[in-house]
User: Which sequence fits this backbone?
């Protein structure tokens, strides 16, 4: 098949998942054209994995010090450019796949092409427990943001629905490094202000932090080692070290749960998906949830041993079958993955 694959590049989870799925689809003889939107493609490592590709502006959330600014997000939305991006695509495709990427989804709607939504966001199409805010906003998120006519959803739990276990990178699933052998604390909080975080973490005594950030070089500040983001190095540190501080995305907490980490997460205020994820992680006793990062919260979290491991089965083979056979019912096979 000729497939258009849209990737929302505002989060590393979308990119990591798409990289492996695209590789598998290419191995099976499908022709894949990739759209990347929401970020500068030059900041994406190993970009050749996604070629042929086109870059579009798309949409992204405006954030400031750990909070989404909805008014600024709407004001910065360039609808004229968005329409231009859609109209610039003129090739015919057999199928469109979108990992929460809006240009590809609306192109499919315009051309009346079958479009499948892949990923965690599409679990909101299912009957799952959600926060009140998410219930009110799910008409837009994801129904309007990336309209699709079929979903292949994933979550931390199935909730009795046709929902796949989390998709995990092979470096995590087939790890050759001994897990949790070091007691450093991995910090990945791209939504937070780094100066505020350094000030907070510097006050935690007798603990060392490895802080991944969009920087050019590694540097040491007090008890904090700041490292430039690298897939290889990040995965290695994530596997080896016992603790993780992060926001409430989906991919990273899922990887941490598979390895068996102690997790502290702070949902991005104003981002309904993260608020939902945080609630689910807390309700399932998979992670400790907090409203803000501060020395008292972090020290209290470190004093309690809450290591949780979930051996999620690999959904990739079934995911490929669902993509290639969109009209078949895979409910029983999906539920078997959770047993």
Assistant:
């Amino acid at each position: 098949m000729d497939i258009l694959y849209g990737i929302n590049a505002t989060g590393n989870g979308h990119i990591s998942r798409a990289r492996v799925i695209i590789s598998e689809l290419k191995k099976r003889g499908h022709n894949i054209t990739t759209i990347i939107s929401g970020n500068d493609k030059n900041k994406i490592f190993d970009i050749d994995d996604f070629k042929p590709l086109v870059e579009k502006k798309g949409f992204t959330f405006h954030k400031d010090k750990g909070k989404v600014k909805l008014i600024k997000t709407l004001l910065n939305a360039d609808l004229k450019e968005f329409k231009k991006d859609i109209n610039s695509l003129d090739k015919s495709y057999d199928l469109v796949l979108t990992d929460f990427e809006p240009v590809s989804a609306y192109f499919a709607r315009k051309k009346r092409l079958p479009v499948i939504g892949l990923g965690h966001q599409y679990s909101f199409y299912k009957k799952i427990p959600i926060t009140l805010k998410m219930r009110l906003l799910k008409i837009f998120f994801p129904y309007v943001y990336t309209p699709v006519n079929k979903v292949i959803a994933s979550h931390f739990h199935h909730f009795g629905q046709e929902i796949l276990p989390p998709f995990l990178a092979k470096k995590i699933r087939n790890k050759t490094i001994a897990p949790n052998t070091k007691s450093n604390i991995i910090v990945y909080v791209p939504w937070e202000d780094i100066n505020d975080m350094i000030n907070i973490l510097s006050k935690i005594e007798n603990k060392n932090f490895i802080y991944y950030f969009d920087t050019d070089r590694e540097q040491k500040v007090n008890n904090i080692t700041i490292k430039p983001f690298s897939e290889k190095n990040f995965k290695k540190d994530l596997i080896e070290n016992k603790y993780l501080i992060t926001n409430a995305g989906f991919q990273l907490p899922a990887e941490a749960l598979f390895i068996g980490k102690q997790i502290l997460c702070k949902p991005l205020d104003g981002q309904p998906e993260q608020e939902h994820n945080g609630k689910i992680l807390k309700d399932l006793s998979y992670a400790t949830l907090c409203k803000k990062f501060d020395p008292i919260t972090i020290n209290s979290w470190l004093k309690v041993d809450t290591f949780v491991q979930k051996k999620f089965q690999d959904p990739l083979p079934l995911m490929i079958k669902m993509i290639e056979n969109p009209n078949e019912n895979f409910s029983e096979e999906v539920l078997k993955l959770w047993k």
Observations:
- Residues 170-302 form a domain with the Rossmann fold fold (CATH 3.40.50.2000).
- The chain has a mean pLDDT of 89.
